[in-house]
Design brief:
3 domains; Dna Ligase, domain 1; disordered C terminus; Rossmann fold; single chain; 5-stranded parallel beta sheet; binds adenosine-5'-diphosphate; 8-stranded antiparallel beta sheet; 17 helices; globular; alpha+beta
């Protein structure tokens, strides 16, 4: 592969290009009118305008993207995340055009794109699943009696749902029919597929996902787990690797389950298998994301594996150069998604201009971003400004490093999730590791904010943590020479 086109924008476009450049591969950017002056456009060796700002006239134009790839003699297309990354038709169109799709084959994308098809596919591999129905509900009466068997509350889920959308909790039997009707009509209008199913509602779940890599020669490995339980609207804001709660046996079991899920759909490339972990330690398969995840850097930090490089090697048909036993967890990493959102106003998008934009620096601090001072946050796309990733030799040192990095990150002109990140890093539930997906609902309220965001509170917490840190981390890990991001 001598040249790749990145069918995406923003931080992920730069992230992919950075590895490509290091591997001596030329890069092609495609962009919309809203991104004309964006850094990722300048960062590429060549750049081509796709069309107006709305995604369906630009980043979702499969025909145009493939045409540009052909005229520029591109050998591979990397879809990033979002946009066309989980579009089976695009994967097929790219291959049919004689270009390598840097991602899985259409079959795996299709199967895992439907929660019901995914459940059916993994069943033969004995993967633990949340109790519930594994077929689309056609008979509401029959479904109601299954719900009663499972026990309320239950969750109605849209098979084609994604991004935290298409889920409804039903607290009691009397609401069942009404919620079911609403769920079906919502699924039909939002996803064009009215299939819904039910699952037991796990009251205090943790979101644990496993990174996998699979080559075209039947080799599949996992790169341990990421914990993504701090969410708002069922969407992640803070992620870390490893999880603070898994023991070695659970880690091995969940890793093996993820490898089996990847095998069940003949997976190729980098993928993520998502599970929920119940309070009793049982874990259940949720879904597989057939692409690079937003939060992939925390895995890169603790394994020292460049996942984009692996994706490119796999697409070139190479055998995996790493074996399961080569991998060891080294240290700890936390990522904060810095969104242009106002946590004080239900995390609603905060639009405006970056009047001030100063990045934090230092060893073990990595910022994946695509903005510069003076730029506007476009309203057309996801409001993520950057990913702030920190690495340290222990979880507690990592939390401390994140606090300092948030402090050094100066953004003015818009509201962001930086302050919320500071709240999380100071909160005793996060620090102790005893939290679940209801973190925001349970703690990010007036009382909690008073306790953790008032001037003297962080100081007291910081002193306590510094003490634990001093006791625990006397041993320093060797400097990791091949970590490209520390050079930023
Ligand atoms: P999506 O495809 O929209 O991301 P997922 O199935 O991956 O949907 O679930 C997203 C989030 O919703 C999970 O991280 C978890 O917080 C919550 N969730 C999903 N299924 C359940 C369940 N059965 N019980 C409780 N929470 C759930």
């Amino acid at each position: 592969m001598k040249k790749i086109l990145i069918a995406n924008r923003g931080e992920i476009a730069i992230r992919v290009m950075r590895t490509a450049k290091r591997m001596g591969i030329k890069t092609v950017a495609v962009y919309s009118e809203a991104d004309k002056y964006a850094p990722f456009v300048r960062y590429a060796d060549e750049a081509f305008l796709l069309g107006p700002a709305p995604s369906d006239e630009s980043y979702l134009r499969m025909d145009k993207i493939i045409e540009i790839a052909k005229t520029t003699n591109t050998d591979g297309i990397h879809p990033g995340y979002g946009f066309l990354s989980e579009n089976a038709e695009f994967s097929k169109m790219v291959s049919d055009a004689g270009i390598k799709f840097i991602g899985p084959k259409p079959h795996a994308i299709k199967v895992m794109g439907s929660k019901l098809a995914a459940k059916k596919t993994v069943k033969a591999f004995d993967i633990p699943m949340v109790p519930g129905t594994d077929e689309a509900i056609t008979d509401v009466k029959a479904a109601k009696s299954i719900a009663l068997e499972i026990g309320y509350p239950i969750l109605i889920k849209a098979s084609a749902g994604g991004g935290g959308k298409g889920m409804r909790v039903v607290e009691e039997e009397s609401q069942f029919e009404e919620q079911m009707e609403l769920a079906i009509s919502e699924a039909t209008s939002s996803f064009g597929d009215g299939s819904v199913f039910i699952e037991k509602y796990i009251g205090s779940p943790r979101h644990i996902e496993v990174q996998v890599l699979a080559d075209q020669h039947d080799n599949v490995i996992h790169l341990f787990e990421r914990e993504c339980s701090v969410q708002r609207r069922h969407q992640k804001v803070v992620e870390e690797a490893p999880s603070a709660v898994l023991n070695e046996t659970q880690r091995k079991d969940i890793g093996q389950a993820a490898v089996d899920v990847a095998r069940s759909c003949q997976y190729e490339g980098a993928g993520t298998v998502e599970f929920i972990l119940d309070t009793d330690g049982s874990f259940y398969f949720l879904e597989m994301n057939t692409r690079l995840q937003v939060e992939h850097p925390v895995t890169e930090m603790i394994t020292n594996v460049d996942l984009v490089e692996q994706q490119i090697n796999i697409a070139r048909g190479e055998k995996l150069s790493i074996q399961q036993d080569d991998l060891k967890i080294q240290g700890h990493s936390i990522e904060l998604r810095v969104y242009a959102e106002d946590p004080e106003n239900k995390f609603l998008p905060s639009i405006g201009t970056l009047n001030k934009y100063i990045l934090p620096e230092g060893e073990g601090v990595r910022v994946d971003d695509a903005f510069e001072e003076g730029m506007d946050i476009p309203i057309y796309y996801d409001p993520m400004i950057a990913k702030l990733i920190v690495y340290a030799d222990s979880r507690i040192a990592c939390i401390e490093k994140m606090k300092r990095a948030i402090n050094d990150y100066k953004i003015e002109g818009i509201e962001t999730t930086l302050n919320f990140g500071q709240f999380v890093m100071h909160h005793e539930a996060f620090v102790s590791g005893d939290f679940n997906t209801h973190f925001v609902k349970n703690y990010f309220n007036e009382e909690g904010k008073k306790k953790y965001l008032e001037p003297e509170a962080p100081l007291a917490a910081a002193m306590a943590i510094q003490f634990i840190h001093d006791q625990k981390t006397k041993i320093q890990l060797p400097r990791r020479s091949s970590n490209n991001w520390q050079k930023r």
